[in-house]
Every structure is written in structure tokens, then in C-alpha cells.
Amino acid sequence: MKRKHKGRVLVAEDDALVAALVQGILEDQGYDVVGVVGDGHSAVEVVETIHPDVVLMDLQMPGMDGIEATRQIQATCPTPVVVLTAHEEPKLVTSATRAGVGAYLTKPPAGQDLEGAITVAQARFADMMALRELNVELENRNAELGAFAHTVAHDLKNALSPIVGLAFVIGDEYDTFSPDQIRHHLYTIGNQAKKLNRIIDELLLLAEVRDRDLVLMPVDMGEVVADVQTRLATMVAEQGATVTVASDWPMALGYAPWIEEVWANYLVNALKYGGCHPCVELGWQSEQNGGTEVDGTYRFWVRDNGPGLSPKEQARLFVPFVQLSQVRAQGHGLGLSIVRRIVEKLGGTVGVESELGEGSTFWFTLAAVQGKGEEGRGTGR
Fold it and tell me: Is 214-381 a CATH 3.40.718.10 domain?
């Protein structure tokens, strides 16, 4: 009795008798032979078109041999490959393995050997794809680390240079300065030291975000916002800013310390770049998608009355670390990239809406705690 639906197989064999033999064995064992071709070029084209589960590939074929065909298949449409060969030579096996072949069979293949080879090829293919994915991730992380190191070094140098310069100036020319001048220089040094401390805090936060595995918990967004207001009260007063906050807040899934950093980053930017005597609003609303409410998702936002951002400037925000050294947005780059990393790890998204002369709205989304906070209202438009 035939067993069906074990998998879809493409046979690439230029010997018609061998191809017919292999096809018969496969069909008897329950495989679906979805094509038979006689050369490497056709094998590559058919794989890209019909996406079989496995390919049985002859090594010696006209036009393009089985090794090169396998190499092209693994580059364009990765698929498990079993090689059919008259002689299993060590050099040939090595070349085929490097090309992505998963198993080998000598001609003519026996039924039991054929089924076993397919199983081995599929298992090795899964390992190969997992290794390829790890290699891609490693390459991306290395590229990100290099760009991030460049960016952080640039920011640290910019903050440290005035400290070093002023310290030497004060040391060399102390007697020529009035007390007010010395006080001014020391105040400048203090501000630059705060910048250094802020960069260090961002580095520590980034390390925690990258390395820590979280179980998302209900977060009272009202408490988080209140903590941020307390934390930044001095800055609000110094800027002469007006901060309007929604009257009630929902419960969202996340991690409160990280969410506080997101709010703090948004609010600091609004105070710094929100114009003279900034007017800042903090609010939330149910997320919308094409006019349809997205169940269980909230959008939180900070809106300022600043000069707004051009489309080009908006494109420079929230960039991955690999782009920071090439695309810098004044005052935003590192912090907003970390914001993006935080929110995405919490399962949300980030963005900005802005028009020149109309201010900016920086937002992020988080999942709602079902059954809680559903009646909360923001001041969103």
C-alpha cells in the first residue's frame, strides 16, 4: 500500500532511466515527485518556481553540474539537496558539502537508502539554516556594535572636551578671572559632567535592555507618568514650561522602569526643543488602524509646540544604531534609538508625527491589560 504526502521532491537527473527509477521509488514510498529535469539550470529555475521540499540532484549534468546548481539553489531559494553520484570521491564530497548538499547516494539508489538520505538531508538543512541565521545575527550585532561604539565615542568626546579645556584654562589663568567668571566656567563644567553622566546612564540602560529577559507585567501608566513629572520638575520650572497631563490612564503591559525612561526621553526632548516657554501635552488613546480600533493596544504620546520637523528630519529619528554614525539628529539620536529598542522589546512600536510650524508628537504603543483601563481617555486628536 502506498504512503502519500511524505514530501514534494524535484528530481534533477540527465539519465532518463535513472530518473525513472528514482521517481518510481519515491512514489512507492509516498513522496510526490513534482518535477523531473535533466540539467542544472532547469533545476535552479524549477526550485525557484515550485519550491519543493527536497531536491535529488545528479552531480554530472550538461550545462551546469550538480554542485553549482546546489550552490545557486542555497543562495536564492534554500532547499535540502540529496546528491546522486556514480563515485563518492572525497574531494567531490567536500565540494558538494560546501555548496550545501545534505546527503549522498551512489547510483542506482536503493529504496531504503533513498528515504534515509532524504531524512538526513532535511535534518542537516535545518542545522545549516539555523547556523546561517546565527551568522547573520552575529554579523548584524558586530556592525551595530561598531557603529554604536563610534557614536558613543563621539558623544563622550564632545561632552568631555569642554571639561578638559576649561579645567586647563582655569588652572593656567586663574588669577586673571573674576569670581563670576570662575563660577560661570565651573557651572559649564558641571553641565558637561551631567551630559557625561547621562550618556553613561544610557549605556547602562542599553546593556540591561539587551541582556535582560522580561515577563511583561501590568503597569499603572498614571503612576509612571507622575514619577516622570517629579523627576523632571526642576527642568520644567527652568524652561518655564506648561505640562498638561491626561486626567486618567490605562493599565498597559510592560516594565515600569523602562517605560519611565521612554516618557523621560520624550518629555526632555519636548522641553528642550519645544520652543520658548514650551507647552507640552502627555496623553493616550486606543490605537487605530485605518479607522478601525485595534483591540488591546494603546498609543501613548508627548506633543510639543515647537518648530516641528521636516520629513527628512523625521527620517533621522529612531534609526538603528548601525545608522547613527551616518545619520545624526541633533539632540535625539542615541536616546531615541534606545527608546526604540526598549519599546520593541516590550512588544510595541514607536513613531513621530510632525509638520513644520505645527509642533511634534512622539508616540509609542503597548499592549493593554485586558479588562482594565478600557474606559481611560487621553487628550489625543
Answer: no
